[in-house]
Amino acid sequence: MSTLARRHFQRVSAAQAAEASGDAPMQGDAYQLMQAALFEDYRRLKSTQSMERKAEIKREILPKYADYVVGVLQAGRGAQDDVLMRVMLWRIDAGDIAGAVAIARYALQHGLTPPDQFERGTAAIIAEEVADQALRLIEAEDADTPALLEQLETVEDLTRDADMHDQVRAKLYKSLGYAQRDAQRLEPARASLARALELNDRAGVKKDLERLERQLRQSHANQQNDADQANPA
């Protein structure tokens, strides 16, 4: 079977299995095959200590699950799917926030739960893990700012009404504020960082917020000065 034919078969098989499972736990041959692959990949990751190397491995192995994910998202009706949820988390760790958000949208819509070892709910996990990854990218100056900002705004919208610890939501607003700042959206950035500080006074944004507020005051003063010069009394 050619690569294209195999990928098509995987997508169709996953879609059929997801549709047939309805809102019961995911089942079927396509799911069992992915579960087996995930088990082996999970063992490989567990035997690796370096977090950097773990991320590299995840980027290496994630393509094998891509067509399965596409099929499930296209035809799924909310079956609990541990493979899908694990791939969502691996995509975040691998830096594929957009791919993780696509799964998160489906998972939150249908109330899918994370793997057993996680004590937090799905909304809290996606909010915190995406925020952590975004902050790493921003700190390393390795972010595609417009794309990252759009992804963070999507996560904030998806998780806005979910119950989670204030510290987690503060971290999401912190990352959102920094992305807005880097995109020169200074007023929204000020609001986001202020909200992060309101939720957690140890969020680590106080000095950045003060700098941003000074920048905004100077910008407003310059605008007023320009207006006065253009329209002298």
Automatic annotation (TrEMBL):
Pfam families: Phage_term_smal
InterPro entries: Phage_P2_GpM
Disordered: annotated segments: 214-233
Bias kind Polar residues: ranges: 218-233
Stated name of the protein: Phage terminase small subunit
Organism: Halomonas koreensis
